[in-house]
Amino acid sequence: MEKIQTTLSSPHCAKYLVTLCRHFARKVPAEWDEYSGEVTFAMGTCRFSLGHEGQQLDVLCEAENKENLHMVRQIIEHHLTMFSRRETLAVKWQ
Predict the structure, then answer these.
(1) What SS3 class is residue 81?
(2) β-strand 56-63 against 2-9: which pairing, if any?
(3) Do 75 and 44 meet the contact criterion of CB atoms below 8 Å apart?
(4) Distances (CA, A) of 54 to 9, 12, 17, 51, 83
């Protein structure tokens, strides 16, 4: 299993968590509450969890191989950019 993760810092992290999960739930299985969420794509999974009093969003993507992981990563990056138009999020994957 391949994994990649990032931690985002923003006062809007709680909003991003719900917005992303709600958006993805229109097409793929997604579950969330106010503190965490999980989205299951055909090629892999992405988990979100709030930290540091809602000012941090931890994002963990997993897939069976690097190619699928790259696709999940691109989907998440694209949607983070789309939903964070008013601020620039520093997405540094590890």
Answers:
(1) helix
(2) antiparallel
(3) no
(4) 9, 8, 10, 5, 17
Pairing state of beta strands 2-9 and 44-51?
unpaired
pTM: 0.92
Q: What is the pLDDT of residues 18-49, one digit of tens each?
A: 999 999 999 999 999 999 999 999 999 999 99
Pairwise CA distance, residues 92 & 39, whole Å: 20
Distance of CA 25 to the CA centre of its chain: 13
At a CB cut-off of 8 Å and minimum separation 6, what does 64 contact?
Answer: 1, 2, 44
With cut-offs at 50, 70 and 90, classify the pLDDT of residue 63. Answer: very high
Neighbour tally for 38: CB within 10 Å = 16
DSSP code of residue 11: T
